[in-house]
Amino acid sequence: MLERCLSGEMSRTNRLPRRRLRPALVIGICLAALCAVDMASAVPASPDGVDVTQPDGGRFRLHKRGDEFFSWQETADGHAVVRDKVDGFWKFAAPAADGAAFVAIQNARVGTADPKTLGLKKHALPDAKLLRAHVKESKNRLGDSPVAVPAGKRVPGTTSTTAAGDPRPRLYCRQTVDRRGRPCQG
After folding, report:
1. Are 149 and 169 in the same domain?
2. What is the pTM of this model?
3. Which structural domain, as residue segments, surrounds residue 160?
């Protein structure tokens, strides 16, 4: 059929009707765009762990938990850990009483200390109210409203909504879509 079409033997009326394909193509593109919008929301951290080596040579498996608004690390058995900035060791941690964070327990190195004797619970998190407030603050800080910037200026990490050479102030967005998946509007 392709050879007949290329050689000119086939008339225009025998070819595939393009008018019937266009609506299907438009619908397909719209459906793909709708599916892609859903992917712009917060995503959980990877469930795969990584092997970590302590400064003394001890090894353990570390798992990242949470999303871009709140995240933490756990051992393979589910106890929260943080890396001590002073000595570089990973230590077991307890949820902070005054915020959405974890506090390292001194002398509780992963691999040498027993989290059960420290009274730690598996998958323990900070207070739910503190977590909600932290996530809300993080979302507000991230923002989804455009920012006016004078012409000729550039804001790193943003997307311009006007064409280059336009003398009007440019509108920049911190994201290409807002939290609800709508395109950033200037």
Report:
1. yes
2. 0.55
3. 143-186
